[in-house]
Amino acid sequence: MDRVEEKIIKLIDANRDRIIEFARDIYSHPELGYKEKRTSQKVYEILKEKSAEIENELAITGVKAYLKEKKEDELNIALIGELDAVVSPNNKCADRETGACHACGHHAQLAGIIGAAIALSDDEIKNSLNGNVTFFAVPSEEYGEIEFKLSLKEKKLIKYGGGKSELIRIGAFDDVDISVVHHSESDGSDITVGDNTCNGFVSKVTKYKGKASHAAATPYLGINAVNASSLGLNAVAYQRETFKDDDSVRVHSIITKGGGLVNVIPDEVVIESLVRANNVEAIKDASKKVDRAFKSGALAVGAEIEIVTVPGYLPVIPLEPLKNMIDIANEILPNGKVEEVKKGKHSAGSSDVGDLTHIMPVLKFSTGGVKGALHSADFEVVDEEIAYIATAKMMALTAYRLLKDNSKEGLEVKKKFAPKFTIEEYKKYMDSFETVFKEDYNE
Fold first, then answer.
1. Structure confidence by residue, pLDDT tens digits, 184-226
2. Helices (DSSP H) in 29-69: which residue ranges?
3. d(Cα 125, Cα 123) in Å, to the nearest integer?
């Protein structure tokens, strides 16, 4: 490490208690996507002290802070932390009213960007950077509460359900050249550098409308929406053998409304679904088959059906792990377990990081310090030094090395990257997935 890097480490270590206190506070007050008002404010209060320019309420709750005043001709590195929690009501740290819990480790990302901001805002360090750093707290990475997000869309507060997707749409990533992202992992490693492929998806809200009637006295006068939904869900299950194994298709649904009183024929059922695959063609194919299956349930009992499909996330296109990031990991944890992502590793899960990977270089690393499966009741932080402090050091030092020596490394990363979409092409692609199907089979 050079002298500036040593100072970065010392500043993060000197502010260790503040960073950990911040992380614990966020962990104790989890909020769900596009509702992260308190979390956003906490991030804003700290970043306002450490940045030259700051914007907030981007895509409702996003915070974007520039280390230095913006200049058009310089490289800009975004350090990204996600504001939202996930629904995991059985976790001991879950909010008892909402079920929200940071069983995803997003609070560790936020600790990382806060720690990096504290170190990089030192005048000597800041002036050594040949470029700018953006500390970017983004909303709604977890894709839950689909009906709520559709309500925000109807109010024209958002257009896309994912936070990064929406921020891309409104132009908040237009001046970012490279993004650095992080995730917590409980796989036994302390730091893992690189990313794996993962699925993309579309989301659906399917509504069956039937006709209420007395369930015992006059059931023949009703149209049972639960029966329609049951047939539809079973028809979806029968599609599974038509999906290619190589496409890693996943279809999963929840019923958010399923009737009221047991002695009344249920007249409305609402189903939220995600349809995932590792490539766009397979997503489109699976989406068509799921629609066909859901329609069959309505047709069979003579119900009305509405299927609203909206774009979710794109599959991740990972870059080769950056050698400098591997070096940093080994330098900050000389006795730790540092690994590179295994080539060919794939996750059937999804992230709006995938959208970013289609338009700009994205450098990812993961840190441990947690145990238990992500999104589960068992997830917990067990080593704050790894989960929070190592994350901050990785973010700060990665930004520094990308921008030192006239941004040599950063410019090389940018030069090698071939985007799949321009911003406009991306928006056109996303909008192509928006469909609404309505049919009344009782007419």
1. 999 889 999 999 999 999 999 999 999 999 999 999 999 999 9
2. 37-50
3. 5
